[in-house]
Design brief:
alpha+beta
Length: about 170
């Protein structure tokens, strides 16, 4: 089961920076992120969601592949490719995996202009190593399905100053 974590930042770029860190940690197998969305409330108060995965494009590529394959079987690969890509794009656009978009927009809308929120669905995590890398990134945990103890550890890591490198 996945855990939801929502962290708010006063800066509209900080959530994207932290999401980039999470992607690097995912490549190192320290965390398994199901979904990570950045919601930015710009200076004019407009909320924009930046999805981690473009489902429309992924659907079009997948649909195009299957359409071309079926088209080859029925001796018309171009028609199959076109129909498959179109159907895949539509299904990708209609699919809402992970975190509900309306929930994210509503929550982000309640924050001040020029802020950002990071919404993360986490499947698995090597907590000590991830918390160490998130140390000092700032932000305020505003919503989570973590235990109270896990939430407190996360907030402490976000608030902590990074340790200065040892002179030597």
């Amino acid at each position: 089961m996945s855990s939801l974590v929502v962290i708010a930042y006063d800066d509209q770029f900080k959530a994207e920076e932290v999401r980039t860190q999470l992607r690097r940690m995912q490549q190192d197998y320290l965390i398994d992120v199901e979904d990570a969305v950045v919601a930015v409330k710009d200076k004019e108060g407009k909320v924009k969601l930046h999805q981690m995965y473009n489902l429309t494009a992924m659907g079009a590529v997948s649909g195009g592949f299957w359409g071309a394959l079926i088209g080859l079987i029925f001796m018309n690969p171009l028609l199959g490719l076109a129909v498959g890509a179109g159907a895949g794009a539509v299904s990708g656009a209609l699919t809402d995996l992970g975190i509900n978009n309306d929930f994210m927009k509503e929550l982000a809308g309640s924050f001040k202009n020029g802020s950002s929120l990071l919404f993360v669905l986490v499947r698995k995590v090597t907590a000590d190593k991830v918390l160490e890398q998130l140390q000092g990134t700032g932000g305020k945990v505003i919503k989570t399905s973590l235990t109270h103890e896990e939430e407190a550890k996360l907030q402490a890591a976000l608030d902590a100053c990074k340790a200065a490198p040892a002179a030597g």
